[in-house]
Structures are given as C-alpha cells and as structure tokens.
Amino acid sequence: MHVDxxxxxxxxxxxxxxxxxxxxxxxxxxxxEDVKLFAVMSGDMNPALANAEFxxxxxxxxxxxxxxxxxxxxxxxxxxxxPGPGTVLIKSAIQFDRSVAIGDTVTVTVxxxxxFAHNHHILLDCTCLNQEKLLVLSGSVEVLAPxxxxxxxxxxxxxxxxxxxxxRLQTLVARAEGLEPIDMAVVHPCDRESLRGALLAAEAKxxxxxLVGPEQKIRTVASENNLDLKQHRIVNVRHSHEAAAMxxxxxxxxxxxxxxxxxxxxxxxxxxxxxxxxxxxxERRISHVFMMDVPTYPRTVMITDAAIxxxxxxxxxxxxxxxxxxxxxxxxxxxxxxxxxxxxxxVNPKIQSTLDxxxxxxxxDRNQIKGGLLDGPLAFDNAVSIVAAKTKGINSAVAxxxxxxxxxxxxxxxxxxxxxxxxxxxxxxxxxxxxxVPIVLTSRADTAETRIASCVLAALVAHANRTKKSTA
Length: 472
Hints:
Helices cover about 35% and strands about 25% of the residues. The protein has an eleven-stranded mixed sheet, sandwiched between helices. A five-stranded antiparallel sheet has the order 2-4-5-6-3, covered by helices on one side. It has 14 helices and 18 strands. By secondary structure, the protein is of the alpha/beta class. Among the domains are: about 10-155, Thiol Ester Dehydrase, Chain A; about 280-435, Isopropylmalate Dehydrogenase.
C-alpha cells in the first residue's frame, strides 16, 4: 500500500499500524545548488564527481551527485513520510548502482519486508530509480518505528544561496596573474567610481592608466574621495567629447592598447570609436559582451549584445557570436556552448529571432562561425536549466549548459544583464570587442568592482592581441 503524507502536516505511522508490504515514495530532482550546498556542508569537493569537462569548465559544472546525497533521500523518506516523525535509523546496507546527474529526477521507494515485535524494529527494502526507471541505489534499512502517534505541521525550509562576490572577484583577477599591466586610456574619469575603478585596477597590476579629461576636475574628484593619483599620467583636455577624441589619438599612436569609459555617455565615446575617419573599426562588427558570474548558475555566462547593436541583422549576429566565441577562447574555454535565445525553442516563421537562430546554427555547420557549439532557438529557461531542458524533452549539448547567451536585440539583453546584477547578485564585467583594441564599457552606475572585473577581460584580450601580432 502506498502511504501519502499530507503536504501541510507530517504524521507518523506507529509500529502497530504498519504491515508487511506497506510502502512509500519520495521524488526529488537534483539541482546544481544541491550539489554545491552538499559539498560545502560536507567539505567534500571531490573532483571525481565531475565529468570530463571539469578540467576547463569550472566548479560544479555538470557534476554528478555525491552518493550520500542520494542516500540522504532515504533518511528524508523515513523521517518525514514512512514511518514518519519519531523514526530512528538503526542500520543500513546500501549499494550505489548508478550515478545521479544534475537534472535527473530520483524516485525513492521503501517497502516493509519484516517486523520485530520485541524491539519495534522494522526492516525495509529500498530502491532509488531515475527518470528512465534505471536503478541508482538499492539496499535495506532497519529502523526503530515510533510507538506513539506524532502529528506536526510541516516546517517550510528556507531557500539558501551561496554567494561571495569578493571571493569571485579575486578569482577573476587571478586569471590575469603574471601578465604585465597594459596601457589603458581612461576616458573622462570625472566621478568617484570611474576614477576609483581605474586606480584599483592599477593597484591590482592590471593596467597602467592614462587619465584623459579635465585635469583639475580629475584632481578634485581624487581629493574629495581620498584617492591617490600617484604618478599616473593625466592628459588634460577641456571636456568629455575632447577626451574621447584624444583617446582615439592615443590608440592610433600606440600610446595605449585599451580603452575604459569613464563618466561620459556611451554614445559619446562610441561615436569616436566607430568613426570611419579616425575611429577603431576593423572588418569585424563591433559588439559588446557582458560576462556574468551568477551565484545560482554553475558557470560564468556571457550575454551578447546588450549595449551596442540595437536590432542586429543576421550577418551582424554572426559577427556578434564570433566575437564572443573568440573571447571565450581567450579566457580558456576551447569550445563554448552558444545558446541563441528567443521566446520559444521551436522555429516559428512569425518570430524573426527563431529564423535567425536556425540560420546561425546552419552557418556554424558550414564553418561560417567557428570555434563554438551552437544551438537555437532556445528559450531562456531551457538555455540555462538542465532541469527545464529535460522537462521539455530537449536533447542538446547546449541546452541547460550555455556559456554564451545570444540575445535577439539590445533591449532584451540589457534587461537580462541588469536583472542578474541587481536581483541575483551577479558579478558583471563589460567589454567591447571587434575594434582595434578592447574597450571597457560599463554603466555610469557600475561599481569600481565591476570596472576591475572588466579590466581583467581587457588585459587578457590585449595580451592575446599582442600574441597575434607577434605571430602574424
């Protein structure tokens, strides 16, 4: 007989109410945060729990469950369902038949095999099956069943998120460890955060800043905020527009190999960057990438393009994707998984983004886009959630594991990035690619920490550009 426990209450079955053959089941789906939380609580960070991609994909990427996570579901079943509250586990004999991967749904079933009246012990057979009805755990447990009825209101368990933004920032900065600082023109750093971000990046030995702007204003901001300008070079100009133009001159004269936006408007800087006469265009479409470290997602994710191209065409999207793939290679991901987003995961002639996604995937098949694994259209949920992808029956190496999210337009991408930053405590970095040099393009509201993270990307790209030039 199957025993159901009401959702709002936990109620025990006492020894005398239990018969041989009685059973109960519990269903759980393994989430990435389950693996992370179990590892933190137990101290077990065993890399053997990762699949072959672990070496280049980061902590908890496609991990399998700790064996004892699956075994703990037995304890949950016994203590909350059958026999229920008051049950004491005496001993167990279990074996692990198959691993449980993120997104797998496990059904735990316990069946009464034998009762012992002299001590109120019960022997139960246990099985755990995955969603394909394959055995993942089997064995038996012996419990002391309750002799008095216990009925208690179920306590709602709190949601737990593990996040340490400062530690994540240090991990990101470590990517550029050992590289010499790059000369970076910081355009109009005339507020606290833009100036502080540049100086902190200099302290982290990521950049040698060239501060381009009205000198008196820069020095006033530094004085008011107790910021030490040290011996950093200041190029004095009259206003923000002149600062943007001067920064282009510094790049063209090889006095700087990267740019950082300060407290001027994005349009003001980018108008100089894309100028046909004096700008920094290449044969590649210029595009922006947000790199986001989200506490609730098991890998760093890139979002593109959310700042430059408003309504990109199909050829422009191809360049946007290639820029992001090239960046992924630079930061150590040899074959990034690229999810091309839309509102739905099926091709619909009425939704242009689904048609573009299908065409872009075929372009990758024809080697018109190189170095990544593309799939689309994918809705946001099944692009980032293995559970959602499996629920919808999507069989894809990209779905649920995306490293790069390609958005249909600037509006949707900007909203995704800002939501992750302000609602999910994501650590973000922003960089413009496709120009002659990397450009740190952050919002005027961004913190100094975001600017440091962005400088890491710029430093890595600048050094990759040096290597490319030396081997050309």
